[in-house]
Amino acid sequence: MSIVLVTGACGLIGSESVAHYAAQGYDVIGIDNGLRSTFFGEEASTDWMRETLKRRHPRYRHFSIDIRDRSEIERIFGSFGRDIVLIIHAAAQPSHDWAAQDPFTDFSINANGTLTLLDSTRKLCPEAVFIFTSTNKVYGDTPNRLPLVELDSRWEIESDHPAYQGIDETMSLDATTHSLFGVSKAAADLLVQEYGRYFGLKTGCFRGGCLTGPNHAGAVLHGFLSYLLKCAATGASYTIFGYKGKQVRDNIHSADLIAAFDAFFRHPRPGEVYNIGGGRECNCSVLEAIALCEELVSTRLKYTYVDIPRRADHMWYISNVDKFRSHYPGWRIRYGMKHLVGEIYERNLTRWSSTVGLG
Fold first, then answer.
1. Helix (H, G, I), strand (E, B) or coil at 119
2. Is pTM beyond 0.85 here?
């Protein structure tokens, strides 16, 4: 028996991972205690996804436990032991705005929870591959020092600049404002690297840009593309925070990210770090995303503009994925912006409508 263990199993990346490996015939264990609704309110609850996973995948087993609960985590790892071949760690407090409200909860989940999982792996299934869903927020606001130019709908960098193809893994993590979320994720990121380099575990860190897809339960403080589409579909008002709405993000479909995870799983490189995102193939500014959403729903989005950006927010972030491609040349971006926006909308419209009494 080969088991894949997924934390944050009901979230965007976790649920995509569960579906992917269940379809390949693996037994899948999911760990998720539903804290997302605590962070972002009932509208962001992933209870519906938990029930969907259990219904669609007979070989899926769900555990509603907290990754900070060391005894429970060790009990699960001990029960399945060396049958666990892959751990995908996607559980997190994922919002850098929310982290400032409760730094202790944020750090205990993102850093201490990761340590608990790593050490359980080391002691109870040391041959398993351990993949960590990190974030571009580990670089803090250093990307804002790039020589950006203002265009009609976005901030951009000159095409002859070395960073034009995106930000790579050599960017420093030091002397920058990260947000407390960025700090807790950076601590976890370094722990994952260290357990690979010091203990020899098969660990990999994936520093994501905007991770998105149809399973995303977007909310005000997290999941901008999904939440933006929800606002467009339901008539709710969206708030743009600073930078004239021209801040740029690359977006990667969750299925493309899981394909990258799977490539690493098949041929792991212990302690490695990769920037991962849509790169130059799949990116947009907030204003450009609004235009795409309005085209899709054939109506104007209601939004307000606040001329104060979120603390330590990026003006421009595009991932340079060249390092990952050089290690795994078979991987590619399959989904562009129009496909992403269309799929999120089509898969969620019924659920969104029911929550606000539409249709």
1. helix
2. yes
